[in-house]
Predict the structure of Peroxide-responsive repressor PerR.
Amino acid sequence: MRNKHSQLSRVEAHSLLKKMGLRKTVARTNLLQCLAEQTSLKSQAEICELLAPHGFDTSTIFRGLTDLIEAGLVVRIDTGDRIWRFELHDRDPDGKLQPTHHPHAICTSCGEVICLQPELLEKLAQLVSGWSLSEFILSGVCPECQNQPEA
């Protein structure tokens, strides 16, 4: 799993774009840097809010995310609530893209999404004979919501 809340320099972002055959645009570079800094999945609306000070509009961000997804640099996660969330695709320590992406858990009460260790997906794949698992999302209630008094 990618080290969350890390910095991605402009040079590193340009290198990733070049490696994946994409032109290095200001929008794509800023999107990669923005997503690298996040500690959790972000919706397009949240990304737009984070990048608004840089002057990017919603359609530019949508096109940039689409390009980065198609290139395999960004993963779009559908947690079942009709809001796509985004994060950088997992890479090994050498920067090479991993064949699968780590699993997630979503709270059905507040919508919080957390990243789970990639080993969980590997263990599940062993239990499901003949399947090649690529995505897995657990749903349940997070500890904070469990501790809330019922209304």
